[in-house]
Design goal:
By secondary structure, the chain is an alpha/beta fold. The chain is built from eight helices and eleven strands. The chain has two domains: 163 residues, SPOUT methyltransferase, trefoil knot domain (Alpha/beta knot); 63 residues, tRNA(m1g37)methyltransferase, domain 2 (Trp Operon Repressor, Chain A, Orthogonal Bundle), CATH 1.10.1270. The longest helix is centred in the C-terminal third of the chain and has 19 residues.
Length: 264
């Protein structure tokens, strides 16, 4: 087992040309996974991320959350961040010069290997594998869109990866960002109380999770399956595998086909 570096959890103080009002309130911690969120609504965070296991891990310094207010980089005295779409059309588009300045600010503060991603319904679907990749990096910088989206040039310039929570459209990327951060943070060392939980749950092995039961032994005329009460761990493991396969085949034929392809 590798020992935790002595620098883990120590504050990192860095010089900055930004005024104090633009500085993060929470000091950086060395060797701690960081989520940086560029948003028009920084007060939406930590939101649900401040509760339960992720919230406790946040308080314990096992990961960090920093928000970057897009309005701080807005133009004119009104802090404008958007403009009308080139070529006409409804709505407004976040300006490249405003978003670019916010990304530069986040990049200057983010350490190590941290992908820059944009919450977008046209992006790659977010998956458990993607969460594992993010958890294995030094952090992630997330851009939350609003209105009709972001000027394409800023996405191209910073090689931003577009990621989607699903095939639907939301009013902004903040909720999607919280969902993806939650899925990632729970994979970090020491966040989950039982490390096996992350191994046995849905999508970890390409299949949906088997059904779960607990006390009472009978409820509303429904009993816990006998095999789970047998104490025979081999049979229990076999039953769980069979249930995972059956559920995946019935509910997610796309995942089932991938599972069959892997088995060759």
């Amino acid at each position: 087992m590798s020992k935790t570096p002595k620098s883990f959890g120590r504050k990192s103080i860095r010089a900055s040309l930004l005024p104090q009002s633009l500085m993060d309130e929470t000091p950086d911690l060395v060797n701690v996974w960081q989520a940086r969120v560029i948003t028009l609504f920084p007060n939406a965070f930590p939101g649900v991320l401040g509760e339960s296991l992720t919230g406790r891990a946040l308080q314990e310094g096992k990961w960090q959350l920093h928000t970057h207010d897009l309005r701080h980089h807005g133009l004119t005295k009104h802090r404008n961040v958007d403009d009308t779409p080139s070529g006409g059309g409804a709505g407004m588009v976040l300006r490249a010069d405003v978003v670019g300045a916010a990304i530069e600010d986040a990049k200057a503060r983010q350490r190590g290997n941290a992908p820059i991603v944009y919450m977008s319904p046209r992006g790659r679907p977010f998956t458990q594998a993607m969460a594992r990749d993010w958890a294995g990096s030094d952090g992630v910088t997330i851009l939350c869109g609003r209105f009709e989206g972001v000027d394409e040039r800023v996405l191209e310039h910073y090689n931003v990866t577009e990621v989607s929570l699903g095939d639907f459209v939301m009013t902004g990327g903040e909720i999607a960002a919280q969902a993806m951060i939650d899925a990632t943070v729970r994979l970090l060392p020491g966040v989950l109380g039982n490390a096996e939980s992350a191994v046995e749950e849905s999508h970890s092995n390409g299949l949906l999770e088997h059904p779960q039961y607990t006390r009472p032994a009978e409820w509303q005329g429904r009993a816990i399956p006998d095999v789970l009460m047998s104490g025979n761990h081999a049979k229990i493991a076999q039953w769980r595998q069979e249930m995972s396969e059956a559920l995946t085949q019935a509910r997610r034929p796309d995942l089932w086909q991938k599972h069959l392809d892997k088995k060759g």
